[in-house]
Amino acid sequence: MKIIDLEYGDPRLESDLLPVLRELRPHLTPELFAEVQDRGRVQGLRFTAAYADDGQCVGAAGWRIVHNTSSIRKLYVDDLVTAATARSTGVGHGLLAHLERHASDEGCFELNLDSGTHRTAAHRFYLRERLDIVAFHFTKELKSPDGEAARG
Question: The CATH number of the domain where 10 resides is what?
Fold first, then answer.
């Protein structure tokens, strides 16, 4: 397996990473993904892809370094997904290890991610990877100014 960070504008973001990312985020169209990249770039959004030996993208991570009062400096994982065809093959472990190295290199005190309450298999994986459940994440869905749902 080969894990690489994809730079902003790399065509593999759409051709390779997006199909895997859509397994977790099915609402992402190529257009919406491009918009998220454009707007997220100024917030430090980056993407990492995991490739199988045959060159197929089998894992995707979206992440950023965040500075805040609770953690001071942390690596926050927006998205972590392994393609359904490659689950339980070490892809998630490899991606997390890669992100931990980034966090260490950046002087982060934590690596954080959120996971939907219904994703119990993912929770078992995170606990095996020695991540702890340390908070509840509360959400209130908002409408855009035109009254539509804020997300695609």
Answer: 3.40.630.30
